[in-house]
UniProtKB/TrEMBL annotation:
This is Nickel import system permease protein NikB. The chain crosses the membrane at residues 12-30, 99-122, 134-161, 181-200, 239-261, 281-307. It is a multi-pass membrane protein. It comes from Brevibacillus reuszeri. Residues 95-304 form the ABC transmembrane type-1 domain. NCBIfam families: Opp2B (NF045470). The lineage of its organism: Bacteria, Bacillati, Bacillota, Bacilli, Bacillales.
Length: 316
């Protein structure tokens, strides 16, 4: 197991290198000069040339990438071209809000999806099954921005249960933190719940039809024991895969929801950076998200061994 973890961690290096190359090239091939954007239309050619030299934009792309990647390997993501603040500082200030929203949305999706999927599989072709699938279909079909607006209208404007905008840090006030994140987390989690519900149902149906499940039932196993001890545990492998993918999708897809609810997360940072062509910030955010995504996939792979003891990583 330890050797497998080390190999997977080492595999992060080429993955992040490829990501950094692609992001670097895509950003620099976008029409427009960041120096001209920063100085505005009133800038003189001399001012523009001075800023381009200071930012290194007058060097070849290969040279710019080399200098950037050397600093990244040293833990230096550079400085924002707009605020002149360290990129690591900007990301560390915004990342907690995005991580909190992502985790909260994932928890909500699992609380909704796992029970619905189990009920749908156990009560196949009944009103319970059809109702669960309708909920899953609605969750998949409704865009997160539309769900966010509906939640604000109902639970904030009409009922007044939750605030419509703003963010409170977890350490400042736990209760207010959860209240401010509930509506945005619901708008994100409800959509992911639809995907997980369908996967849970499909996986549970496959497991419950196996011969060993029939044998356990024949030996007098209770429904609760069969469903949760043997059925759900053996059905978790594809479900865990979907959960890992959903976490990555949630982490990278909070831009619209963070904007609607005025959450100071990574999403708003990326949007502002794109408008200002703040290359170092964009590159830093994408690398951080890629790193977190790969680490989540590593955790998912390790969870496979818990739910399926037949998996032996020592041979891989």
């Amino acid at each position: 197991m330890a050797s497998y973890v080390v190999r997977r961690l080492l595999s992060l290096i080429p993955v992040l290198l490829v990501v950094s190359i692609v992001v670097f090239l895509l950003i620099h091939l976008i029409p427009g000069d960041p120096a001209a954007v920063m100085l505005g239309a009133q800038a003189t050619p001399e001012q523009l040339a001075q800023l381009q030299e200071k930012m290194g934009l007058n060097e070849p792309l290969a040279s710019q990438f080399y200098h950037w990647i050397v600093h990244v390997l040293q833990g230096d993501m550079g400085q924002s071209l707009v605020s002149d603040k360290d990129v690591n500082t900007l990301i560390s200030e915004r990342m907690p809000a995005t991580i909190a929203l992502t985790v909260y949305a994932l928890v909500i999706s699992l609380i909704l999806a796992i029970p619905l999927g189990i009920i749908s599989a156990v009560k196949q072709n009944t009103v319970w099954d059809y109702s669960s699938m309708v909920v899953a279909l609605v969750g998949i079909s409704v865009p997160n921005f539309w769900a966010a607006l509906l939640l604000i209208i109902v639970f904030s404007l009409h009922l007044g249960w939750f605030p419509s905008t703003g963010y409170v840090a977890l350490l400042d006030n736990i209760w207010l933190h959860l209240k401010h994140l509930t509506l945005p987390a619901l708008s994100l989690g409800f959509i992911q719940a639809g995907v997980v519900t369908r996967m849970t149902r499909s996986s549970m149906l496959d497991v419950l039809r196996q011969d060993y499940i029939r044998t356990i039932r024949a030996k007098g196993g209770t429904s609760w024991h069969v469903i949760f001890r043997h059925g759900l545990k053996n059905a978790m492998i594809p479900i865990i895969t979907i959960i890992g993918l959903n976490f990555g999708l949630l982490l990278g897809g909070t831009v619209v929801v963070e904007t609607i609810f005025s959450i100071p997360g990574i999403g708003s940072l990326v949007v502002n950076s794109v408008f200002n062509r703040d290359y170092p910030v964009i590159q830093g955010v994408i690398l951080y998200i890629a790193l977190i995504y790969v680490l989540i996939n590593l955790v998912v792979d390790l969870l496979y061994a818990y739910f399926d003891p037949k998996i032996d990583y020592s041979k891989g």
